[in-house]
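Summary for the steering committee. One of the milestones for this cycle was to obtain a three-dimensional model of the protein with 2-oxoglutaric acid bound, which we needed before selecting residues for the alanine scan. The sequence and ligand used are listed below.
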Amino acid sequence: MHPRTTISPELREWILATTRAGHGVPDVLKLMKDNGYDPRQSRSIVAEVLKLPLAALLAGTDKAAPQGLRTTPPEAPTVTVNGHAVHVTLSVDTPTLRVLDGILTEQECTELIALAQPRMQRALTVDPEGKQQVDQRRTSEGMFFRLNELPLVGRIEQRLAALLGMPVAHGEGLQILHYLPGQEYEPHFDWFDPEQPGYGPVTEIGGQRIASVVMYLNTPEQGGGTAFPEIGLTVTARRGSAVYFAYETGDRSSLHAGLPVLRGEKWIATKWLRERPFRK
Ligand SMILES: O=C(O)CCC(=O)C(=O)O
C-alpha cells in the first residue's frame, strides 16, 4: 500500500483520458515530469488513479491497466438485431445517448412485469462505503434477474449485446423497478466515484460502469420520464422503448433522474454495463 495522495479531479480525468487514448504509463509519467511533477509523487498518483500496484511502476514493469471495453452506440435509424428491429429516434453526443424505440415487444414488457412482480422489494442504492442501503432518494421497488436466468431475460441480454457491441458477460443482472405515484429516483450518476471508499469493492468485479440502458415496460399516465438535467433533456417513458447512455468516469453530463410518477405507475428494466466481464 502507498499513502493516499490528494489528486485533483482534473488530473485524475487527464490520466484516465490519456491512458484510454492508448498512451502507456511511461508516457503519462514523462508528461507529468515535463509539467513539473516530482517523479516519485507522479508514480503514486498514477498508481492510485489506475489502481496499479506502486511496485509495478517502481520496477519499470508498468503497463496501463488493460483498456476496458466500451459500447458502440447504434448510428443507423433502424438496426436489426437477431431479427428484431430497433429504431433510433434521438441521438445526443454529450453524453453519448440514444433513444431506442421497439427495443422490447409489448409481450416481452408484459412478461417481464409478471415475472418480476412476486419478487419486488424496496430498491436500494450503493453507499460511499460500497454497501447497499435504503435511500430516500430512491423510493421505488425493485428486483434483479440473474444473467440469463430465464429464456426471455437471455434473449433481451443477447439483443442488447448485439446492439451495443458488448459481450453479455459485461452486463449486471437485469434490474426491474416499479414506481407508484410520487415515487422517483433523484438525480445521480451510474458510474462509481473513485473518490469514495467503496469504489474498490464495487469495481473489483467487472471494473467501472460504462453505460446504462433504461427500458420502459409500460407508459405511465403522467410523469415518470428520465431527465438529464445537465443537458436539459427528458426522455418520455413509453412502453417498449429505452434510453441508452454511455459515460466515462466523472462524466457529469450523464447526471440523470427518474422523475416522479404523477399518475399511473411506471415499470422499467435497467441494464448496467461494465468495462470488463461482471462475474461473481
Ligand atoms: O427511472 C428512471 O427513469 C431512471 C432509472 C435510473 O436512473 C437507474 O435505475 O439508474
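Key point for the committee: The longest strand covers residues 84-92.
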